[in-house]
Write a structure and sequence with these properties.
There is one protein chain. By secondary structure, this protein is α/β, with parallel strands linked by helices. Among the domains are: 24-82 and 505-556, Urease, subunit C, domain 1, CATH 2.30.40.10; 90-210, Diaminopimelate Epimerase, Chain A, domain 1. It is built from 19 helices and 27 strands. Helix 8 crosses helix 9. The longest helix is centred in the middle third of the chain and has 17 residues, at 218-234. The protein is globular, with a radius of gyration of 26 Å. The model has no long low-confidence stretch (mean pLDDT 94).
């Protein structure tokens, strides 16, 4: 009896003893979590320690095992991995905040008015702007420099088309590069009218002026990077693939990240000059937790909107014109042969069916039996039917909003038959098995929700066309989310450290105000990011006034 009593007392003492919980940095509970793991599992909660996901599971699993001074009750809101933009111009976005914003202008008169207003406010010695698109104007023709010459006879003005593949310059700017009707360059065009320069320079011809444009200093670049980061965090972007950076910019990014001034993760594609190739192939891959330098960015052709995309047959709306090869075949072939002997990627801008055909042939010839080099075709907008099989070993990196921006006039450029091979995202996905999605901002709007909407609905914000644009090439919501997270990470060789909410990966995640996986298509562009986290640390939180509006909408 005495032994039994002792046993009962011991059991009682043991059962009353409180189990000590594991202390972690952050706990998230009551969430609708899309983990984007291999099984596309969902969860309710997770614990974060030292900037990484420690455990993911049900509320009871996490609450019983862990404790934290920072417990976030998501109250049923949707959580997904931080967005990865697989192709953008992050530094360019920062620069855009420092120059004339011409996005959305409806005529060249609008463009000129914006330039005049900018100069009144800033009184700069050189005026630079970006964002015009003649396809959005009533008169869909390239502008001329006449009005700019009259208003700014002595101040150089350069206004870049939204895609970066054409500029209109006034005479003061043309004088910098001594541009005349006789100026010629491979892969570029000086547009003439009545035998005289109109001021429009296409693709490589831009260099006539831009080589003489004042260079930005270190402070300009640093300010642009910090400014761009704020915008990106607002939209839930935790990693950005900057498609074309020079060595100076990359080194400034690294220094700002190491000083913890710049928090966003950056996959840097090195602008493929001979100098950069020589330097980085000798230096090798450079990788930190925030910066990954392991690819070169090439240009195969121009853009479809400026008729610089290289086509296999002439443009339907410009007989005899095939577009432009912006880098010679010999140069691309030699570069590919050099890069294949390193661990670097070769990522090449290719829009027209001829450019894609050419690059795919070069890639496949050089890669041969190398099956995990993950070389990328950036844009892959127009593909000949027989070329899809050539993507079996090549990653398609595409930007869905290009389809919904270009659909109004793409058929004019390409004709009824050829346009069927344009923006073929589902076919590209089937060819490779994965597809990396981005925006190409600031060429397109930065919002990942517009990317998501364009990929799934293939419509503009007014639900046009009613049945979607070539819906056979739409992506499912699951495919789209993967393309913006884990597949984008894969395209960067980073799938083991980010792109999904899994144990051991960086705690980069975002909280949304709506469930993007189930809401009506028309609601997708309206989704807002409530909070953005990098390494489990809050980097952006929706302003209180806006949060109150979101709360009211959710109640309704």
């Amino acid at each position: 009896m005495k032994n039994l009593l002792t046993l009962i007392i011991l059991i009682s003492l043991f059962s009353c003893k409180k189990v000590e919980k594991i202390q972690v940095d952050t706990i998230v509970i009551n969430a609708n979590i899309y983990t984007v793991n291999a099984s596309f599992d969902k969860a309710q909660a997770f614990a974060v320690r030292d900037g990484k996901f420690l455990e993911i599971g049900r509320n009871s699993d996490i609450e019983e095992k862990y404790d934290s001074h920072n417990i976030i009750d998501a109250d049923g809101q949707t959580i997904i991995p931080g967005f990865i933009d697989a192709h953008c111009h992050f530094l360019g976005l920062g620069y855009n905040q420092q120059q004339v914003n011409l996005v959305g202008t409806k005529s060249f008169e609008d463009v000129v008015d914006s330039v005049v207003a900018f100069q009144k406010r800033n009184k700069v010695d050189y005026i630079y702007g970006r964002g015009w698109d003649q396809n959005d104007w009533l008169v869909k023709e390239f502008p001329t420099k006449k009005k700019l010459d009259s208003l700014f006879p002595d101040t150089p003005v350069v206004l870049e088309r939204i895609d970066g593949h054409a500029i209109v310059s006034n005479q003061a700017a043309l004088n910098l590069g001594k541009v005349t009707a006789d100026s010629k360059i491979d892969g570029g065009e000086v547009v003439l009218k009545d035998g005289k320069p109109t001021g429009v320079l296409i693709d490589n011809a831009e260099s006539f002026v831009m080589e003489h444009w004042p260079k930005r200093n270190r402070a300009d670049i640093a300010n642009a990077l910090v400014t761009a980061e704020k915008v990106c965090f607002k939209y839930g972007l935790t990693t950005v693939d900057d498609a074309g950076l020079d060595r100076k910019a990359i080194e400034i990014i690294d220094s700002l990240q190491r000083a913890n001034i710049l928090k966003i993760r950056i996959y840097a594609m090195i602008s493929a000059s001979k100098e950069n190739l020589d330097y980085y192939l000798n230096k090798g891959i450079y990788k930190t937790d925030k910066l990954n330098v392991r690819s070169f960015k090439f240009y195969g052709d121009g853009a479809l909107g400026s008729r610089g995309a290289l086509l296999r047959k002439p443009y339907s709306d410009r007989p005899g014109h095939y577009g432009l090869l912006t880098t010679s075949l010999e140069a691309m072939d030699l570069a590919a042969q050099r890069i294949v002997n390193s661990k670097f990627q070769m990522n090449t801008h290719a829009i027209g069916d001829s450019a894609n055909h050419t690059l795919l042939n070069i890639y496949n010839k050089v890669l041969k039996d190398k099956t995990d080099r993950r070389w990328r075709i950036e844009h892959a907008q127009i593909i000949s039917p027989k070329d899809f099989d050539k993507f079996k070993n090549i990653i398609p990196s595409v930007q869905p909003t290009h389809a919904t921006s270009d659909m109004y006039w793409a058929e004019e450029r390409l004709g009824k038959e050829r346009v069927k091979g344009a923006y073929p995202y589902q076919q590209l996905l089937k060819a490779y098995g994965k597809i990396a999605l981005g925006t190409d901002f600031p060429v397109e709007n930065i919002s990942p929700f517009l990317t998501f909407h364009s990929a799934v609905a293939r419509q503009d914000l007014e639900a046009y066309p009613p049945k979607g644009f070539q819906m056979e090439n739409a992506l499912s919501r699951e495919e789209t989310l993967k393309g913006m997270t884990i597949w984008a990470a894969y395209s960067n060789f980073e799938e083991n450290e980010k792109g999904s909410i899994e144990v051991g990966k960086f705690a980069d995640f975002i909280i949304l105000d709506k469930n993007i996986m189930v809401i009506d298509n028309k609601e997708i562009p309206k989704v807002k990011v409530v909070k953005t986290f990098v390494n489990g640390v809050l980097q952006y939180e929706v302003p209180k006034i806006e949060e109150a509006k979101i709360s009211e909408e959710q109640k309704k």
